Amino acid sequence: MQQQGEGDASQRIARISAHLNPHKPQMEGSCNLETENCRAKGGAPGFKVAILGAAGGIGQPLSLLMKMNPLVSVLHLYDVANTPGVTSDISHMDTSAVVRGFLGPQQLENALTGMDLIIIPAGVPRKPGMTRDDLFNINAGIVKTLCEGIAKSCPKAIVNIISNPVNSTVPIAAEVFKKSGTYDPRRLLGVTMLDVVRANTFVAEVLGLDPREVDVPVVGGHAGVTILPLLSQMKPPCSFTSEETTYLTSRIQNGGTEVVEAKAGAGSATLSMAYAAVKFADACLRGLRGDADVIKCAFVPSVVTELPFFASKVRLGRNGIEEIYPLGLLNEFERVGLEMAKKELAGSIEKGISFAMK
Ligand SMILES: NC(=O)c1ccc[n+]([C@@H]2O[C@H](COP(=O)([O-])OP(=O)(O)OC[C@H]3O[C@@H](n4cnc5c(N)ncnc54)[C@H](O)[C@@H]3O)[C@@H](O)[C@H]2O)c1
Ligand SMILES: O=C(O)C[C@H](O)C(=O)O
């Protein structure tokens, strides 16, 4: 005789088995375990995050780290290649975020709809001998297309742009959003967190401190001389000899090139970038949650200088950027650096705007 409930359970298992293809990750359009037949529905409170370029060198470790973030309830992984494998792999992690994969432009809309935060590491990286601006011809179009998708499908999302050249791709994104009538400058942020991470590490090395106790603001932009560490404003306050200042400024400005050369043709920073991107994304999510005093450096639409975009300290909140801090007191070395940074930034910003207006 059948025990009470046994029939229900075996029917449920049979129903699930019929739908379950263990070789397929939960991909858009795939016939995986039907959600209505699955008891683990997710639905934990939290934010919905999409990563565009999720199968790349940055995208993969970034996806891994975002899956570990308790503030994330849903994680959408979008790329034009290899998302099924990455999605399958990441989705086996026993953390609460529900992971879904999306492959190719026809799935972009579904990847973006309903998202609170979009992180964009899509695009080609540098090889030795190249500048970030050498990536413009390929990456400008990629960022433009993805931002057109965001304008259409999730215009209220916070957007974190990692794709280089950041000094031009952020202005491109702003123009796309303006054109579509969805532009909110509080929600657009170029990710320069890696410059801060490097500055903290290199400064801590010189001073013999724990890098976790060091906080160096880095302003300007994200390429060469536009990367301007403000050592005079670091926490804890410390003084440097002029040799130390020159060494540290140059090492921070050339940190990306240091990695590109060490990788010898196999790309640029991916692991430290994923770490930095997650640090920054987590700050954006904490801001959205309403946490007080979430302050980070980012390349944002700005009136801090005469330029329309500039990296500086920003306070993050429920609407994205709630406050942009002025540069504060600079020493003579930093004032000279600021003039050089502004000159180069002006050209990169203009290049991005002209491209997007075409
Ligand atoms: N902001 C920073 O501090 C920082 C740091 C490191 C790297 N970057 C930049 O990040 C970008 C990515 O670097 P990476 O090492 O991950 O490169 P990668 O080549 O390893 O990965 C890029 C990924 O983007 C995907 N992609 C290409 N076109 C796409 C599109 N239209 N839509 C969605 N995905 C697309 C590719 O398929 C690939 O998976 C580069 O432009 C690099 O210069 C920025
Ligand atoms: O240097 C690069 O090309 C990648 C990135 O911008 C970095 O700073 O590591």
From TrEMBL:
Active site (catalytic residues): H222
Binding site for NAD(+): G53, A54, A55, G56, G57, I58, G59, D79, N139, I162, S163, N164, M273
Catalytic activity: (S)-malate + NAD(+) = oxaloacetate + NADH + H(+)
Entry keyword DNA repair: no
EC number: 1.1.1.37
Domain Lactate/malate dehydrogenase N-terminal: 48-190
Subcellular location: Peroxisome
InterPro entries: L-lactate/malate_DH, Lactate/malate_DH_C, Lactate/malate_DH_N, Lactate_DH/Glyco_Ohase_4_C, Malate_DH_AS, Malate_DH_type1, NAD(P)-bd_dom_sf
One GO MF term attached to the UniProt entry: L-malate dehydrogenase (NAD+) activity
GO cellular component: cytoplasm; peroxisome
Coiled coil spans: none
Superkingdom to which the source organism belongs: Eukaryota
UniProt keyword terms in alphabetical order: Glyoxylate bypass, NAD, Oxidoreductase, Peroxisome, Tricarboxylic acid cycle
Start and end residues of each Lactate/malate dehydrogenase C-terminal domain: 192-355
GO biological process: glyoxylate cycle; malate metabolic process; regulation of fatty acid beta-oxidation; regulation of photorespiration; tricarboxylic acid cycle
Secreted in keyword set: no
Residues bound to substrate: R126, R132, N164, R198
Signal peptide boundaries: none
Pfam families the record matches: Ldh_1_C (PF02866), Ldh_1_N (PF00056)
Annotated family: Belongs to the LDH/MDH superfamily. MDH type 1 family.
NCBIfam families: MDH_euk_gproteo
Complex formation: Homodimer.
Annotated protein name in UniProt: Malate dehydrogenase
